[in-house]
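Lecture notes, unit on protein representations.

Consider one protein chain, 370 amino acids long.
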Amino acid sequence: MKWVFWLSLALAAYAYFGYALLLWVMVRLRRLPVRTGQHSLPSVSIVIAARNEEARLPAKLENLSLLNYPRELLQIIIASDGSTDRTAEILREAAPRIVPVILPESNGKAHALNEAVSHATGDILVFLDTRQSVAQDAISELVACFADSSIGAASGELLLEADDGAPSPDALGIYWKMEKIVRKLESASGSVVGVTGAIYAIRRELYTEIPAGTILDDLFIPMHIARMGCRIIFQPTAIARDRIFVEKGREFSRKVRTLTGNYQLLRLAPWLLSPANPLLFRFVSHKLLRLVVPLLLVLMLVSSAAAGGPVYRTLFWLQVLFYVLAALGTLSSSTRRFKPVAIASTFVSLNVAAALAFYNFVSGRNKVWI
């Protein structure tokens, strides 16, 4: 049982820290820059799928009106996916500033995106969501990346903020910062695995129609672009801002949805686990290993309890203490002010989400619009 404990610990540590360290070494040995140079500005089509977004749409339209990209080169397409509120009416009223695509029935975000893209005329497609606000120069920053002909897609940066607009100070914010460090290192050493769904851009000719019901368009699309031999990069100067959900369980539900999408993608695109995937090693290291960490944690706890001896008894009780801190943070939000409690509860919450994602996938509960 001792080797089970150490192997499980090594894999879990690699998933969260070792992979980032390996990328850091790769960047130190050989950084791949994005080539820049003089080029004419390409035409851009902003694509948004919306469903029952009457509360957010006015602010989103105002946000889009402040973008500093030349108006004659900018097309805005917003698809209403069978909305039952005033979403479609608001979009019609906003024409001709935008191109409204009104779908009478809801067939999911993937279908809405496909329909919206079919109306696009821009050389570059920029995908946004209704919830987040984007910086005035965000489109310009993304588009600048495509001066390099090897770039097929560029991801912007999502900043998670508290209600007062300050960066998130809690452990979830720390986790997100670590995730962005990994993306920056992946970008500097080659290609990012996936993009930020709230803000990313691709060359229009590289768009692959998304299968109905797909949860993670922001992983499906860039992985197909990578398969075509193009590079996927992270552009941290293209910024979108979002609020962390204050409603209990909303942030957790969003994480479960994302992880469920990772499982779903394996069924939709089995080639991702074959040599046909040029980012196979990165995909396994960044996405898949984290899905099995819940199993690794169980194996660590059971094997340390069964191994015997003072060392393994100590390791067992340290794990128990860690889970007690996590439970404390879950039951009492005030205790999360203490960093060890916040880190423990966030880590356990993320892995409970991964376990639930697996259950959702095997039980067929993966039909989520957004």
